[in-house]
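Review form for a predicted model. The reviewer records the input and the model, then writes brief findings.
Reviewer: anonymous (R2)
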Amino acid sequence: MPLVNMKPLLRDAMDNGYAVAAFNLVDYGTTKAMVAAAEELNAPVICQTSTKTIQYWSHKEIVSWVRTVAEDSPVPVVLHLDHCKDLAMIEACAKAGWTSIMIDASELPFEENLEMSKRVRDIAEKYGVGMEAELGQIMGVEDDMHVAEEDSVLTDPEDAQRFCDALDLSAFACAVGTAHGFYHGDPVVDFDRIKRINELTKTPMALHGGTGLSDETFLKAIERGSAKINISTNLKHVFVQSFVDYHTAKPTDFEPLRLIDAQYKACKDMFSGFIEKFGGKDRAPAYLSKAA
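Model under review:
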């Protein structure tokens, strides 16, 4: 089926107590694996792209991968631009075929962040795509963005309400104690803050920094309104380690397709695990019946 807009998908997730898994694709193989995992579980999935990945492969190549695997798929697939600060890239993605875009101006003061986000709102409306924006500073490392723990700023619920009321977002990213990358020590997630923000904004929350969180943390966050959960760092490690493990186990096997297949299967297993954890299994039919 054609790529879908993220907004109605996340609204269905929020209304029905599950979250849609969002994975930052690396190449065609990981794109194919995440959609195949979603198909086996009859679940929706979000294929995300970092700005760094787009700069490496190009808009044209990435769109061709995702459209190729989605067009014959019976499940809803979103192509989403993750953390982006460049308005030119945001518009280029919307124009090229992304069905959701994210502006991350969270390092700016509230009013400047809102003003920048409104400019992206205009882009989203122009191309008929979904939109995510961020308020608060999520600590950790995401591609080329580094936010130290002492510089992180948890999102104020009242500010969140003002922000979301002005933007009509598909997804709202905010700082609630999670972090990009692997955790050093136990994360302290503010579940009361998640609940309060969702009560005030009534906007599906995107939980960033999903790698390394416990199943209990995922469940509590989803129960309080998190409708999109991002997994990036975990995929990077499985992508590399599965290749290394195969070559270590079979050092004389230099048939590339066998190594690539081992990598594909390892990534697909990881995708399936997270989709099930987030409650996405068998959610595709309900969404599709509403969208029809």
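Findings: Residues 145-151 have pLDDT under 50 and may be disordered.
Further findings: Residues 256-277 form the longest helix (22 residues).
Recommendation: see findings above.
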